[in-house]
Amino acid sequence: MPRYALHIEYDGGPFCGWQRQSGGLLSVQGAVEQALARLEPKQHTIAAAGRTDAGVHATGQVAHADLTKNWDPFRLSGAINAHLRPHPVSITACARVADDFHARFSARERRYLFRLVTRRAPATHDRGLVWQVSHALDLAAMQAGAAHLIGLHDFTTFRSALCQSASPVKTLDEITITQHAYPNGTEYRFALRARSFLHNQVRSIVGTLERVGAGAWAPAQVATALHAQNRAACGPVCPPQGLYLKGVQYPNDPFKTA
């Protein structure tokens, strides 16, 4: 059976998350599998690089699917997209891959983006796509706090109690925080990069750094919280709507010639 890698973007707002759920809840995985079943009538099970939570978006999710027919990748992506309507999900690229390619286990790096907007007026065009707060934030303070999290650490403090990872020890390769102009406000973008992340790790980190930016925490308290290795030491977990799975890196980019 030929295997295909799918590069997927979606607005996570209408979905219960990536993973298919019982009870008829709408998931991104379920929407794509249903579209595939319209092309090849059978039960499909696809695997993804990251199981994003309800409300989390993606511009660079990757999944793989095993099909019966030898599809031209360009035609396959168009056919899936036709059956995904009207869901806010799109296959932006498709490639034939080796049988041992696995969207999750072959991945060598994952990149996330978090968008945080500060302004008093409610967001309209970005409603559901950013986390908005009304108070000002200190960029330098957040950058200083983030610096304590770079590298190999036990991230128990920043891990959901529901996390199924075998170990809380992860290497966080990058946290870059940048400031951007936004109509009548300011946008802060948090770019995080690691081989893999714990459940709710990014949202826990950003929620904690927001407290630093607001002046409620000193930057050094981030290190104290990290070393506590205690979930109770974490700052608030921020809402999901500002979070995007931005991209996944593999030893050989399956979409390089797609």
From TrEMBL:
Active-site residues, Swiss-Prot/TrEMBL: 53
Kindly name one Pfam family recorded for this protein: PseudoU_synth_1
Q: Which GO terms describe its molecular function?
A: RNA binding; tRNA pseudouridine(38-40) synthase activity
Keywords, sorted A to Z: Isomerase, tRNA processing
Give the binding site residues for substrate: 112
Q: Outline the extent of the Pseudouridine synthase I TruA alpha/beta domain.
A: 9-105, 146-251
Q: Report the EC code(s) recorded for this entry.
A: 5.4.99.12
User: Would I find tRNA processing among this entry's keywords?
Assistant: yes
Quaternary assembly: Homodimer.
Q: In its UniProt entry, what is this protein called?
A: tRNA pseudouridine synthase A
Source organism of the structure: Pseudorhodobacter antarcticus
Record gene name = truA
